[in-house]
Here is the input.
Amino acid sequence: MISFWAMVLFLIGDSACSSSEMTAKEGSCVTVHVTLSNIRKSGYIVWLKDAVWNDTAKDYEGTIVHSLKPDKHNASEFENRVSVGSTGDLHKLTISNLRLEDSGNYSVRYYDEDDPSYKLSSSTMSLNVQENPCQVSVTGPELVQAGAEVILRCSTVGTCQNSPEWRSSGPGPASSEVSDTKGVKTAQLRFKADWSHDGVTFSCWPSPSNDACASRSITLAVEFLPAHPETICKSPQTNLRSYLDAPKEVRITASGTLKGIYEGAAVNLTCEVQSSNPSVRSYSWYRDHTVLLETGPVLRFPAVRPKDRGSYHCKALNSVGSEDSPEVTITVNYGPRGTMIKASCCEKGVKAGESLTLTCETHARPKPDGYTWFRTITGPGGQRGPGRTEVPVSSNGRSDGRDLRFWQISAGDAGEYTCQAKNTISAQNSTALRVDVLYPPKNTSVSVSPSGSVLAGSSVTLTCSSNANPAVQNYTWYKVNGTEINTVGTGQNLTFNVTESSGSETYYCDAQNEHGKEKSKTVQLNVIYMPQISGSGSCSRTAAEISCSCESRGNPSPSMEWHVSGLRVTNSTERVIREEQLGNTGLRSSLTMRQSQGDTSTFLCISTNTLSSSSLQLDFPSPQQHAGFNCNPLFHIIIVGLICMYALTVGFCIHKNKRLSRRLKGGRDGDTYASLQLPNISPEYDVLQVKNKHQKHTGTTQEENDDYQNPEDGNRPDSGAN
Here is the structure.
């Protein structure tokens, strides 16, 4: 009967590691340590050998070495040869009395009790069991009566060079008898049992070896008679066996208080037995009903840790039976551990205006008595590292300690948050949680490159900038000319060559992401260009004066000056210069001056700004032309018409005058004077006086007489005769 196992530990590592290999000898033992994280309390651990994936069952299947899952049962070949235990995330499997067929690949499978779909697997460990002919086996009685002869034999299973040796936990024979049968070595103990041998463990070890797992043991139970044996002979059913009993009144005592032990303190638990006949042969320890590796009467904690908390009990075992102690509970006081922030929603970001709650979660005993929230402030560009500072987040009614609430989150609330949990022992900060606030474009604006004034004909680039999360996906450019709006491009930048007309146009952009869009304010380019004099400049003259006008446009707004016959003209009473501003970039200038007969001066209009200058020489009308005759075609037609009417009138009057002269030549009597009234004739011909000394009335008709009318009828010579 094996009384205890000494453990040889092989650390496998966590589930992220690659496969490990180990080698052990037949008859020895191994202990495998496997770390599995993210395991929930309500779940099962199953150890598998040579596991393979079953696609139909969607699970790993293999020889079940040890299982706590009700529907998965241990394989018979591992019965009574394995034990398991766990401490936090560390899980242990010990296989004793190794066999050659134990070689294979071992792994752990975790099944969640509440969520069947939640499963975890460890990496694989390869075990190679080597043949060991020197492994030993023992034979002999476990229960004897005092005074009886005891023979214990230990033999190798095969040919071995060295003989095994016996060791005992108490008094026993100093030496053993050794024999060799065809290479098989046997060591034999022979002695008489007495009370001192009760509960003594005799172990046979391969030699030379200190491998406790390779040893085999027998614990001797010695029965003895009471002081007055006659008291047990009154009943035929009574015999010596009735005085043998399993351990009674098993309990745990502690080296100190078990409630509120501070982390790091030393604690010892002792399994005490009030009575046992025969003596206790072995002890087992359990935490939360999971067997531990310790097999002695004392369970030691050199430095207690939070994961050591739990309910403990021990089991005392002798050859008659066993008894469990009542449970005792260890509680460990420790500072906050595993502090983290959990968000109520939106792993990919929360929209501006929505609500968000951040909860500070931690493990601590006693529970935290205070929480503090911090937000990380980063330097320009959001860089991380030395220089970044954490500032406390003011509650402003949003925090009740453990929870930080944002009723309507805004872009200004974005950042990295940490919380600090504190109890009477220590404090711990959580890892940072990034709060990403999603919002449509805002603060959209247009910048111009090069900035300031732009020379006509050169290239200019407009850049649309906006603050948005996620970043702006689409940019659209618009040009405004009066009431007309046109789309002129897409993309964050708009590049084009400017003209003089670009200065009268404005531009703006639209920035859009999946949450909305925003329009920028309009920008107007300051396009600069040299002065340009309009071709409509002209001069006119009257009998008294000469007037000239000239228009020019340029940016910066130009100035204008006049040159007459090569000399610059200044404003005076004789030469008056008037200027009229035409918008921001135009100027009209007029010059008025008196003229002298035969003035043939030349007129030059000069326009200048900071870029350059231009000039225009104006045509001057000849002196014979009436001022303005060359300005209007309708006026020309009217003048020609008046001249024609004037010529017709003069011709008609001359014709009448000739007819009258012929008639006056025929007069016979005395001198005759006549006047002809022609009211439409030029003053040069207002009165025509005719003198005829010899006018005769004979031979004239009435019609001819009617053609002549003296303006003074009473003075005619014949007015009274007829």
